[in-house]
Amino acid sequence: SLPMSSTEGMAIVFGTVMLVVGVVGHGGLTFPPPRNNHNNINPANFTPPDGSTGARYHSGGPCAGGECLWFSEGCYHGCPNCSLQMPDAGNYYGTPSCADPDPVPTLPEWARTWNIGNPSTKGDWTKFHPWRSPGHNPVGDSCGIAGGYLQTRGGGGETPEGASQGDPGSKLPALVGVHTEWTAGGVADVGWMVGANHGGGYLYSVCPKSEPLTEACLQEHPLSFVGQNHTIKYLDGRPALQIPARDVSDGTFPLNSSWRINPIPACNCDQGFACGGVNSSGNSGAQRSYATDPKPSPYGFACPTGTQFPVPFDYGYGQQIWDLVPPKAGAAADVWVISDQVRVPSVPGDYILRWRWDVEQNPQIWTHCADISVVTA
Q1: Which residues contact 110 (CB under 8 A, 6 or more apart)?
Q2: How far apart, in whole angstroms, are the C-alpha atoms of residue 162 and residue 38?
Q3: Spatial distance between the Cα atoms of 304 and 272, rounded to a whole number of angstroms
Q4: Range list of β-strands (E), the chain
Q5: What SS3 state is found at 228?
Q6: For residues 61 and 115, what is the distance between their CA atoms, to the nearest angstrom?
Q7: Are 364 and 75 in contact (CB under 8 A)?
Q8: Cβ partners under 8 Å of residue 157, min gap 6
Q9: What is the pLDDT of residue 21?
């Protein structure tokens, strides 16, 4: 079950958000509940918006309240800002949006999550993308841009409910009826859900509410992870499980900040799903698999040629997680939260908590913000 994030519990407002067919559920901060979750929709609400059964779309999960639609598009290493436009050749192979991008990634090779070792026919096509230089790339807004793009577009660039396209997430109000308290200097649970898996990794940070909410403020206050495991928490009642976590602090920004690597592998081709074998030329080579490896076991979703790296738990793999239905009757696959523990700031006060996901497959960054109060023990 979803953990309480407040001494009073977590207030949930059940509601209905109609997701446009075609929305891919990128990912989102799950707890504490973020401002980006319009109307604080319960992430464990798996009822389809139209009330039918067996539908692929539902109100909860990684896009509860449309939160997965708050991100920054066109963010390249060395560029002064995110273009908020679809790159000329698409998200995979598009060229950077500035004249002088930095072609030298800062991330160690061992921490990569996509096209590891560059077996793609396109070579090292992710080198300018955010995860290849964690924290170094700009964002459109510290708490995300509504729709990600300046103009609405299908496939994940739709306008989230309650916002206008291009609105800055840093201007969103606090959620009504939600009060999250953490104990100063203690340990707190945080968690996020992946919908459309783009690899990469993530960092949690805070900004005191006494200061302007800016990237500079958030960069001054990164939170450290506690422990060496993720906890996979199922929202449909199944027991939680632990899997090993991998952290990287070399080449990150803020300097020496510890980022946690996304533990979920996509299928082993540039596209990350529907990989067609080493001789495939479909989708300009994006479906050509890097190798013919054994398919995952147990095998619930189509990754016939293997995954980008080893699968950490049963069915914990794939790219379009939001659209993966298990082989047996039941809920959709996107019912689990990647939960971690972080060290709480030692100074009591009110803060903005920010989750930042720098992805590797695309030039995109997800940033969602929540409200927390740090109190003395």
Answers
A1: none
A2: 7
A3: 12
A4: 27-31, 70-73, 145-146, 181-183, 187-194, 201-208, 225-234, 241-244, 247-248, 259-261, 336-343, 349-358, 364-375
A5: strand
A6: 27
A7: yes
A8: 69, 73, 86, 147, 148, 149, 151
A9: 31
Residues 148-162: pLDDT tens digits? 999 999 888 999 999
Could you tell me which residues are beta bridge partners of residue 336?
Answer: 234
Burial of 185 (0-12, 13-18, 19+ CB in 10 A): middle
Q: How far apart are CA 365 and CA 369, in angstroms?
A: 13
pLDDT mean by block of 10 residues, the chain; 377 residues: 32 30 69 97 77 58 92 97 95 95 97 97 96 97 97 92 97 96 98 96 98 97 98 91 98 97 97 81 75 88 92 92 60 81 98 98 98 96
User: Residue 224: CB partners within 8 Å, gap ≥ 6?
Assistant: 258, 342, 343
Residue 233's nearest CA partner among 274, 190, 271, 287 is: 190
Tell me the helix, strand and coil percentages in the chain, rounded to 5. Answer: 10, 25, 65
In this structure, the number of other CB atoms found within 10 A of the CB of residue 325 comes to 14
- Cβ partners under 8 Å of residue 16, min gap 6: 49, 59
Residues 330, 362 contacting (CB under 8 angstroms)? no
DSSP state of 209: T
| DSSP alpha helix (H) spans, 27-165 | 90-93
Distance in angstroms (rounded) separating the CA atoms of residues 292 and 275 = 10
Eight-class DSSP state of 330:
S
Q: How many CB atoms lie within 10 A of CB 15?
A: 15
Candidates 278, 328, 330, 327; CA nearest to 301 is: 327
Amino acid at 193: M
pLDDT tens profile 44-90:
887 666 655 444 556 788 899 999 999 999 999 999 999 999 999 99
Q: Distance between CA 110 and CA 195 in Å, rounded?
A: 24
Strands 187-194 and 27-31: antiparallel
**What residue has token string 């955010």?**
130
Residues 202, 205: Cα–Cα separation, whole Å: 10
pTM: 0.91
- HSE, side-chain direction, 13 A CA sphere, residue 344: 23
